[in-house]
Amino acid sequence: MNDFQLTRTLDEHAAEAALRTDVRSGLTGSPKTLPPKWFYDARGSELFEEITRLPEYYPTRAEREILLERAQEIASESGARTLVELGSGSSEKTRHLIEALPALDTYVPVDVSESALTGAAEALLADHPGLRVHALLADFTRALRLPDSPGPRLVVFLGGTIGNLLPAERAVFLADVRAMLSPGDALLMGTDLVKDPAVLVSAYDDVQGVTAEFNRNVLSVINRELGADFHTADFAHVAVWNREHEWIEMRLRARKPVVVKVRALDLEVPFEAGEEILTEISAKFRQEGLRKELASAGLELTHWWTDAAGRFALSLSVADGIGTDGWEGTPGRSGRTGAVDGSGSPSTAA
């Protein structure tokens, strides 16, 4: 792969050190917590792929629907010559954008998995031999230094992953993204939207129990990596809608009193019956609230697209309110949910 370059910003022991820190602080805190990034070992990734195919889990299908319908419009508005994807994984969904960007010079996938980065690059370069791929082995929740590449840049953050961050963490993340951008650059972000709580809970607690297995997989990861002795059957999967914060919470609830040993940390963790570990939040958004969060980071929301059912949104935001080719966030030319007007409302009806 002559057009492939990989820059490592994580050393080989970074993941182990981060896991140790997160497990020690999370399991000794009150309430107990574990970050959702530790779901995703090989088995966890397989389970998540299975989740995306479940009838209850709509976000992946809804986001793909928007990308398929709006890729040309997104490409036209961004004019991107460099595409940066945070948490790129297999880069599957981004292919729609890559194919819609005729002037694209460089793709910069960012992920913590070197195998995912190299595998995705190999597949992309086979289909797009003129493309340059400069992968970053990095944690996108930390400030990044992007490689030199031609502008404008389009930073892409898909999958509704922004919802896994607490509001204060989102503010830091969006400020870090803004720091990557120059005037004329843009951020394309996927966000799940507030809707009927029954629909939301069902998406995170499917009848087949795949999400439950995915949730408990974090305990298997800790067992394997840190010598813990969690019995996964001792913990029930729980998904609840937090109405106050408008987010889903995934938890693991102890079915009985247990004491777990984490040998690598020389740690004993007691659980009372009914005590829970918070393993994930998944915030759901409203357009006006997201517009304010983006504005606080120095980003102007200029375009808002949803799927036909209005379940999920892709938003396009520009640095300092200045788009490409002198465009300044004027209303879009067409579309069911195109550019937004000055009030932050869609300029066309959903």
Can you give me a brief rundown of this structure?
The protein is an alpha/beta fold and 350 residues long. 33% of the residues lie in helices and 25% in strands.
- Quaternary structure annotation: single chain
- In whole angstroms, how far apart are the ends? 44 Å
Ranges with pLDDT <50 over ≥5 residues? Answer: 321-337, 341-350
Total count of strands? 14
Tell me what the structure shows.
The protein is α/β, with parallel strands linked by helices. Helix content is 33%, strand content 25%. The protein contains nine helices and 14 strands. The protein has helices at 14-28, 42-52, 59-78, 95-100, 114-127, 167-180, 197-203, 210-226, 287-296; strands spanning 4-8, 32-33, 82-86, 106-111, 132-137, 153-157, 186-192, 235-242, 247-254, 258-262, 267-271, 276-283, 299-306, 312-319. An eight-stranded mixed β-sheet has the order 1-5-4-3-6-7-14-13, sandwiched between helices. The chain has a four-stranded mixed β-sheet with strand order 2-12-9-8. Strand 10 (258-262) and strand 11 (267-271) form a beta hairpin. Helix 2 runs antiparallel to helix 8. The longest helix is centred in the N-terminal third of the chain and has 20 residues, at 59-78. The model is unreliable at 321-337 and 341-350 (pLDDT under 50).
